[in-house]
Structure formats: structure tokens, C-alpha cells
Amino acid sequence: MVSVDKYFDFKTDLILDVQAVYNANRYAKLVKRKERLQIWLDYYQLKFERHPDKRPTGRTGCFGFCGGEVDQIDYYRARISELDKRMASERQKVLNDPKAIMPVSFVTFDSRWGAAVCAQTQQSKNPTQWLTDWAPEPRDVYWVNLAIPFFSLSIRKFLISIAVFCFGLLLHDTYCICAITCQS
């Protein structure tokens, strides 16, 4: 497969930046988990600031009913620092693993004209090798779906089509039975 950098070698006057998309779904989950832990840490720190004579404590077990009683501020700080280490190692895995690079990249052009030229011209002899399109808004992209393989995506589309067809057939048959019953 031709690399993005090699492809854009002869169009360097139009290109500002080329950024490949990485499959960082596990890293994103760790970031979300850290954000939740940070919210709890902030909550317990505010609680301690309001009542400095009593440090917030709680149990670490299932739903806070079992397990040892710990200082919540120290507990959440330790969990966040542990998660920071896991995030750093996961980030290195994503950056160093060649399988993490997705078959998608974002290209930044220096002008609208350069972007229009590249988006509207055929990019190679094989028209399915390089497909170009205007970039969507970042909030319109469901980033988790970029990691779904094309074959799996095709199977999902096929199964959904069958389900929609069966549901439509069921509705049609139900309507016909109701119509026949009402007319007789």
C-alpha cells in the first residue's frame, strides 16, 4: 500500500500537513475513566474544604458496602496516578504499533483551491485506492466507528437490511390481516 507521504510528495506546494488517524479507542476509554475519577476527587476535596475537621472516608468494595475504609482523597489520587501510568503506556502502544494506523488520514491544504483540486480529481489509476472527500466537522464524526473493519461494516449493513425487510414484511402482513378481518 502506498503511504500518504509518498502520495503527496509531488503536491507539496498545496499541502500544509498530513495527519494519519490512529485507533486509540482504548486510550479514549482511559481518558474518560480518568475524567470521572477527577470529578470524584474534586468532589471530595471540596467536601474536605467545607469541613476541614473531618476527612472524607469510604469503603472501596462493592457499592461502598464492603471492603476496607480508606481516605477518599488519597484513594482517588492514587487511582488517578495509576491511570496516568497506564495512559502513558497505552499512548506509546498506539504510536508505535503500525496496526493502530487506520486507513484514513486528514490533509490540511494551504488554500481552498488546493483542497478543491485534490478533492475533485482522480488520485490514482485505481479509483478505489485513493478516495478523497471534503472533511466533515469533527463533532459529526463518530470516532469509535473508524476502527470497524470494512468487512464487518458490510456484514452489519446486510444484517440491518434483512431486519428492516422482515420488519416491513411483518407490518404489511399485519395490515393485510387487519384489513381482511375488518372487511369480512
Furnish the topology, listing elements before pairings.
Blueprint lengths: L3 H4 L7 E8 L2 H26 L6 E3 L9 E3 H25 L4 E9 L2 H9 L29 H34 L1
Antiparallel strand pairs: 1-4, 2-3
Helix content: 40-55%
Q: From the helix content, strand content and strand pairing, which structural class follows?
A: alpha+beta
Task: Round the Cα radius of gyration to an integer and report it.
Answer: 27 Å
Average pLDDT across residues? Answer: 84
Oligomerization: single chain
Measured between the Cα atoms of the first and last residue, the distance is 66 Å
Tell me, briefly, the overall form.
flat
User: What does the largest sheet look like?
Assistant: 2 strands, antiparallel
The residue ranges in which pLDDT falls below 50 over 5 or more consecutive positions are: none
| Number of helices, counting only DSSP H or I runs of 4 residues or more | 5
Proportion of strand residues = 5-15%
Succession of helices and strands:
HEHEEHEHH
Write structural notes for this entry:
Helices cover 53% and strands 12% of the residues. The strands form two sheets. It has a two-stranded antiparallel sheet. Strands 2-3 form a two-stranded antiparallel sheet. The termini are far apart. It is α+β, with helices and mostly antiparallel strands. The radius of gyration is 27 Å and the shape is flat. The chain has helices spanning 4-7, 25-50, 72-96, 112-120, 150-183, and strands at 15-22, 57-59, 69-71, 101-109. The model has no long low-confidence stretch (mean pLDDT 84). The protein has five helices and four strands; from the N terminus they run H-E-H-E-E-H-E-H-H.
